[in-house]
Amino acid sequence: MSNITINKIPTPTWNWLHVNEARLSDEAGAIWQMPVETESFKVEAHTVMAEPMRLSFEYTQDWQEVDSYDIQVEEDASAILIMDFYSAPQVSATAGIKIHYSIKKGGKLTIVQTQRLGRDVTFIDDITGEVMDNGTFELIQVILGGHQTYLGCTAELLGRHGALDIKLAYQVQNDDSLDINYVANQIGKKTTSDIKVNGVLRDKASKLFRGSIDFKRGCAGSVGAEIEDVLLMDEGVVNKTVPLILCAEEDVEGTHGATIGKLSEDMMFYLRSRGIPEQRIYEMMARARIDAIASYIPDEVSRELIAKFME
Questions:
Q1: Could you give the CA distance from residue 297 to residue 279 in angstroms, rounded to a whole number?
Q2: Is the confidence at residue 229, as pLDDT, over 80?
Q3: What's the mean pLDDT in 55-83?
């Protein structure tokens, strides 16, 4: 096995739980470590981009590549980056993307990622960056395919009133797996973090979600929240949820919660009494969880791609 580990939780828990980190296969680890050329984008100060930037990644058979981007959003600037990752159902590939962002005072960056990969694709996604005074980083991800998918996002909220907003929707099925690691390091005063995750697990799929909010000393007045809602469609799925709140400052507020399982009997009774079959009820609720996150995407083209893939 590869010695390459990713998605490390900030404070390790018991090793026997196997949730502290993710270990890549030899092949994926070698590809992830390959030297790559970084492409840079810069949004000049006081610029509000009227149209989103678009990047499309279509992976073909035996594709092995990692892309790297550096994004700078200057003072009081705003930009939206749309990224779509796609492959045909039969494609075998290993791909990854590394993103570093820097958001200056009053800036805002929104990254939207839609993942529609085939059943024999390994995909690694790592996002890191810094947010200064009154800056905002928004991440919207919709994960609908792939055999092994790894998502990582770390935000350093350095400035006063810096904000992180993450919304994720995922559907994992067959024997596929999804590994997630979100970290909000709240360092500046009165920073905010909000992590919302909606998921659907089917067949024998597995998923591990790590959500960490770390209130550093000096971040007085900061607020952080994380919540996950997971619908378990079949008995063979494996779900692991690790919400973590770390605190070295007294004047902060942190909350977390998770709803995991099947639909409540009250809801099932209500919908069955209106003539809706049980399987149809579950499919409606599964689709609703994805649509609830997709509705936040400020791009009609992306929303249509998601709807078509789900259908």
A1: 28
A2: yes
A3: 97
Mean residue pLDDT of the chain comes to: 94
Q: Compute the distance between CA of residue 147 and CA of residue 90 in angstroms, rounded to an integer.
A: 12
149: exposed, middle or buried (Cβ count in 10 Å: 0-12, 13-18, 19+): buried
**DSSP β-bridge partners for residue 244:** 212
Q: Which residues does 15 contact at the CB level (< 8 Å), separation at least 6?
A: none
CA–CA gap between residue 132 and residue 236 (Å, rounded): 44
Nearest Cα neighbor of 101 from 72, 59, 60 is: 72
Q: Which of 8-17, 163-172, 217-226 has the lowest mean pLDDT?
A: 8-17
The number of residues in the chain equals: 311
Residue 30: is it exposed, middle or buried by C-beta count within 10 angstroms (0-12/13-18/19+)? middle
Residues 6+ apart with CB under 8 A from 236: 203, 204
CA 279 to mean position of chain CA atoms: 28
Predicted pLDDT of residue 2: 60
Please spell the DSSP secondary structure of 164-176, one letter per residue. Answer: EEEEEEEEE-TT-
Please give the average per-residue pLDDT across 147-168, as a whole number: 98
Extract the runs of DSSP E, i.e. beta strands, from 158-271: 163-172, 177-186, 192-201, 206-215, 222-232, 238-247, 252-261
Residue range 17-27: average pLDDT? Answer: 94
Asked whether 157 and 252 are in contact (CB, 8 A), the reply is no
Contact criterion met (CB below 8 Å) for 108 and 135: yes
Beta-carbon-side half-sphere exposure of residue 242 (alpha carbons within 13 Å): 25
Q: What is the pLDDT of residue 251?
A: 96
